[in-house]
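Q: What would this chain look like folded?
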Amino acid sequence: MTAPPPAPAAAAPAPPPAASAADVEKPAIEASIHEYAKALSSMNLQAISRVRVYTPTEAKNWENAFKNYAEYRFIVTIKDLPR
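A: My prediction, written as C-alpha cells:
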C-alpha cells in the first residue's frame, strides 16, 4: 500500500494592485485645490498670490469684484480621479 499523494500547496494570495498615478497624486491635487478655494474665499489677493499668480489685469479684476461682495466663497467638490 502506498501513501496518498500530498495535498496540493495553497496558492499564495495575489498581491494588491499597484496604486495608479491618479490615486497617488489625488491627495496633493485636492490639497492644492482646497488651498486655492480658501485663498479666494479670503478675498485677499496677497493670500491668493501665494497659491496662484495672476496677471495684473486679472488681479485688478479680482480686486474690483471683491469690492462688490461682502463675502466670497469658492466651494469645490472633487468628483473623480484625475486622468
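The helical segments are 21-42, 45-49, 56-67.
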